Amino acid sequence: LARQHGVASTQQLLDAGLSMRQLQRLQHDGGLELVLRGAYRTPSAPVTELSQCAAVCSARPDVAIAGPTAGRLWGFRRLPPDQRIHVLAPPASNPAIARWVVPYRTAARHAHDVIERDDGIRITSRARTSYDLARWLGPDDLLSVIEQAAHDGRLVDDDFLDVVADWLSPRRPWARAFLQAVDRRLPGGPAESHPEVRVADAL
User: Fold this and answer.
1) How far apart are CA 109 and CA 157, in angstroms?
2) Exposure pattern of 167-192 as b/e (b: 16+ CB <10 Å)?
3) Calpha distance 10→7 (Å, rounded)
4) Which of 20, 39, 121, 194 satisfies CB 3.0 to 4.6 Å to 59 for a cystine?
5) Which of 147, 174, 177, 179 is nearest to 162 (CA)?
6) C-beta of residue 85 within 8 angstroms of C-beta of residue 55
7) At what angle do helices 139-153 and 194-202 cross, to 10 degrees?
């Protein structure tokens, strides 16, 4: 619970020696609270974005935090004002019945697109996150995010192109927008701020 922001999956608690009857009793007595089906939290820990991400990841081993949520966890700038938890999920899956979880069901995902953190949160890589954000951001903000991902993660153009290479399709117009943003990058080191991106782009 301490490592995972105050949450644990039902299976983790069963593996620790508790029975379903004991879990139900703890929930009834207020010792545990059900976050969503398959994950509990201790009332002594605050509800935060990190705890919600940990709950979804612990309860659903086949999902990964993605989109604007992953962007916030990476500390990206220029993000849309959306506080819900966005996840990548397998096709035809039902990752969570919760209004604060937004699933994007797709088979377009490589194993190296996802990183598992020490706190149990699975998150899309910086490059994959910037690609997914092409669905939400305009051209200038997307370029700024790509520059930040390149700077913070020491990425080069090939890292970004590798993410999108297998998923080019007319049904994914944001893939072309992402390629156009990568193509706008100037030679040299990545820009360190949004104003720097704007000046470099103007030059």
Assistant:
1) 19
2) beeeebebbebbbebbebbeeeebbe
3) 10
4) 39
5) 179
6) no
7) 110
Percent of the chain with pLDDT over 70: 99
Give the β-pairing of 39-41 and 7-9.
antiparallel
Question: pLDDT tens digits for 67-106?
Answer: 999 999 999 999 988 889 999 998 877 766 688 999 999 9
Judge contact between 66 and 136, C-beta under 8 A: no
Return the SS3 of 85.
strand
Q: Of the candidates 50, 61, 150, 47, which has an alpha carbon nearest to the alpha carbon of residue 114?
A: 61
> 9: which DSSP letter?
E
